[in-house]
Amino acid sequence: MKIAIITETFLPSTDGVVTRLKEAIKYLRKQEHDIIVIAPDLGVTEYEGAIVEGVKTTTMPFYRSKKFSMPQKKVKSLLQKHNPDLVHVVNPAFVGAAGVYYASKLNYPLLASYHTHVPKYLNYYRLYPFVPAVWWYFRKLHNFADLNLCTSKAIQGELHEKNFHNVHVWDRGVAIDHYHPNHKNEAMRERLSDGEPSNKLLVFVGRLAPEKEIEKIKPLLEERDDLSLAIVGDGPNRETLEKTFEGTKTVFTGLLHGDELAQAFASSDALIFPSVTETLGLVILESMASGLPVIAAKSGPTMEQVEDGRTGLLFENENTASMIAAVDRLEDEQLYQYLSKNARKEAEKHSWQKPAKQILDYYYQTLEVYQQNQAKPTKKSKVKVTE
Fold first, then answer.
1. Could you give the CA distance from residue 19 to residue 69 in angstroms, rounded to a whole number?
2. Using one digit for the tens of pLDDT, what is the confidence trace for 316-335?
3. 44-91: per-residue pLDDT in tens?
4. Which among 167, 143, 142, 166 has a CA at the least distance from the CA of 154?
5. Which residues 6+ apart lie within 8 Å of 373 measured at CB?
6. pTM of the shown model
7. Which of 10, 8, 19 lies closest to 258, judged by CA?
8. Are 274 and 292 in contact (CB under 8 A)?
9. Three-state DSSP class for 321?
10. Which candidate among 111, 276, 307, 323 keeps its CA 20 to 30 Å from the CA of 5?
């Protein structure tokens, strides 16, 4: 097949969506499918034999650390140029809205995948009144698709409640050889703990944004002076967080990639995961593959990955005492070794092979649904597209 993937984010950006797409593309190319990626123009033109077509970017005033691509007619010309057998729009919102519009208008089979829980994010930006409108917008975009995907059963249930059509779960995966306990590195532990490697070292990995609720970790550091925290990542909230954690045993590393990131996971004692807005949270599985117990706030997607008392420890969201109690349990060395061993064993069940093969199966399923839909009335779109 020839598949066009239209995405709001791609290389050189690093996040869970990009990681998932990279693994899918590698698998699809090995199966000799042709892939065209239409994404914000950040200088990348090829990946693993897939053509990357960049489209004009802009910077949002409320999110200056990342470039986005708005809906634009270039998407139409690129689809016509490559004439794919199927279009996969990833996280349709901006340029993805144009992908939905033109795939529908040009009558291509269309799959859409939901990865970012934007309606929930609005609460952290004081945009509560817009939540119903945003749900309406995303539902309208996704319901043009022949088939929809999301990344956890919890989100699938929520999307069904919001009347998204034909929603399936695209399973999680992890690079089990890249993220491994063997990458433990004393020099990295020195760096992450700011020269106090004997401290209990917690690591947070992810985008530094309000919806990640990273500030909730601070009471841990105030409660115990033998704890260190490494915050790995970057984002619009970094400066605010640096002020919040000033005077605590916290190191901000910025973005880490490749071997450095694998070493950061393996050289820490546990992953701390305070967010309840994730549709999955791939860093959870990456830390488990590295042999780290996960200390996480309870949410539907988190509880699908972390079994309390077996692969990690869960705490009640917005309950500081519950979080502190969970971290204190790591002092039980027998429990810690049990959690560590089980975390790695659980991660080994989730190599990228299954979800990569699964997306190809969903592509074939999309073609079948598309053919069935040809007998139905033509879909019309009201998505506005600028020149």
1. 19
2. 999 999 999 999 999 999 99
3. 999 999 999 999 999 887 677 789 999 999 999 999 999 999 999 999
4. 167
5. 146
6. 0.93
7. 19
8. no
9. helix
10. 276
